[in-house]
Design goal:
The chain is mainly α. It has one domain. It has 3 helices and no strands.
Length: 74
């Protein structure tokens, strides 16, 4: 039995992945409009990394060969 991806079901088809991408785009837009002092640059980097990691973790889980791992990444 093949993985879902080998049967034509990619992570881009998952609504949760699409919402995660939308969330990351919204966070990045908010950050771009935020006039923060220099001392907050590290916080801004962490917000960007955290918001984008959601979609990346879902995509990584879909790339695994185990159904169990796919479910754990969601």
């Amino acid at each position: 039995m093949g993985t879902l991806q080998s049967r034509g079901f990619a992570f881009e088809d998952l609504m949760v992945w699409q919402k995660a991408v939308d969330f990351a785009e919204n966070v990045i837009k908010l950050i771009d409009n935020w006039d923060a002092p220099r001392k907050h640059y590290r916080l801004i980097e962490q917000l960007e990394a955290a918001s984008t990691s959601i979609a990346m973790n879902i995509a990584e889980g879909k790339g695994r060969y185990s159904r169990t791992y796919e479910l754990m990444s969601l």
